[in-house]
Every structure is written in C-alpha cells, then in structure tokens.
C-alpha cells in the first residue's frame, strides 16, 4: 500500500525559498546571457516558478534524462530522452532540478554542458538530500535540505502520480 502521509515542505516555504533563489540568481547573472535548462519532468513546476522570479529576460529550454529504471535507486547511468533545442555555446547555463539525491545525474549533465562549450554551468535545485550524496558535485543554488525520505509533489512523482500537489509530501509504502 502506498500513501502520502505528511507534508514535509509547505506551499509557503517553497514560495519563499523560490523567491530568495530567484533574487540571488538575478543578482549573480545581471548583464549576462542566461539560459535556464529544466530537467523534466520533475523540474517543471520549480522551473515555472523560478523563471518568474528572475528580473531580466532569460532563455529557457527543457531536457529529459533517465537515470532511474524501474527501481527508485540511481543506476549512475543517464540516457538523454529529450535534448534541448538551443545552441548554448558561449551562454551561461543554469540547470534546474527538482531534487538532488546521489548527485550522479547532475554530475553527468554538468560535464555534458561543459563539453558543449557553455560559458559556465551551474546547478539550481529546490530540494536536496545531502545524506544520500555519492559524488561531490557543487550545488550553486540549493533550496531546501530534506532527510532521506521518498517525497512527491511540487513536480516530483511516485509512479507518475502526485506531481501536481502544491506541497512536498512524504510517501509511505507498506505491504
Ligand atoms: P540523483 O541520484 O542522480 O537523482 O541525484 C536525482 C533524481 O532522482 C529523483 N529522485 C526522486 N524522485 N522522489 C521523487 O519523486 C524522491 O524522493 C526522489 N529522490 C530522487 C529525482 O527525479 C531527481 O531528479
Ligand atoms: Mg523523477
């Protein structure tokens, strides 16, 4: 049995943190050509909120990768399911993620955009599970640290469900 039992991060907490991150990013990239690249599908809700907190025009694009098979643990291998449309050479890239767990996905993506000759590549995530990290990838803009619990909502899913919940909830699975 799967049930969502408890709100871990409220709508207000998310909104406040997104505002702060947007302000920080706006300050850091002022005068630069910035492209936000959302990692689908989980990053889509955060991306939509974050881009509206940035105070100058930015480019946006979307990509979809899979690092998780049927299980909910990272395999360490990523496959690009949908690539971006834009040429990002010479532009400043900010990767926008829902949650950083082991860090493997973002480590791969960072290398990929460096190879594509982006002017810079940084990482922004709304949620992070620091206790699960396997690689030491720097998170330039980190929203909220959470414990090692499986969570859904605010873009995150369990079996493609619950992405539309406005809060982040803890999932409990029992037999
Ligand atoms: P890594 O381990 O490469 O993976 O940092 C990050 C991706 O794993 C997914 N993930 C989760 N998805 N609830 C989810 O719905 C979770 O608790 C969870 N933990 C990791 C997530 O999609 C992220 O992009
Ligand atoms: Mg996911």
TrEMBL record:
Enzyme class per UniProt: transferase
Subcellular location: Cytoplasm
Pathway: Purine metabolism; IMP biosynthesis via salvage pathway; IMP from hypoxanthine: step 1/1; Purine metabolism; GMP biosynthesis via salvage pathway; GMP from guanine: step 1/1
Cofactor: Mg(2+)
Keywords: Cytoplasm, Glycosyltransferase, Magnesium, Metal-binding, Nucleotide-binding, Purine salvage, Transferase
Top-rank taxon: Bacteria
Reactions catalysed: GMP + diphosphate = guanine + 5-phospho-alpha-D-ribose 1-diphosphate; IMP + diphosphate = hypoxanthine + 5-phospho-alpha-D-ribose 1-diphosphate
CDD domains, per database record: PRTases_typeI
Coiled coil: none
Role summary: Purine salvage pathway enzyme that catalyzes the transfer of the ribosyl-5-phosphate group from 5-phospho-alpha-D-ribose 1-diphosphate (PRPP) to the N9 position of the 6-oxopurines hypoxanthine and guanine to form the corresponding ribonucleotides IMP (inosine 5'-monophosphate) and GMP (guanosine 5'-monophosphate), with the release of PPi.
Protein family according to the UniProt entry: Belongs to the purine/pyrimidine phosphoribosyltransferase family.
Alphabetical list of NCBIfam families matching this protein: HGPRTase
Protein's name according to its UniProt entry: Hypoxanthine phosphoribosyltransferase
Organism: Paenibacillus tritici
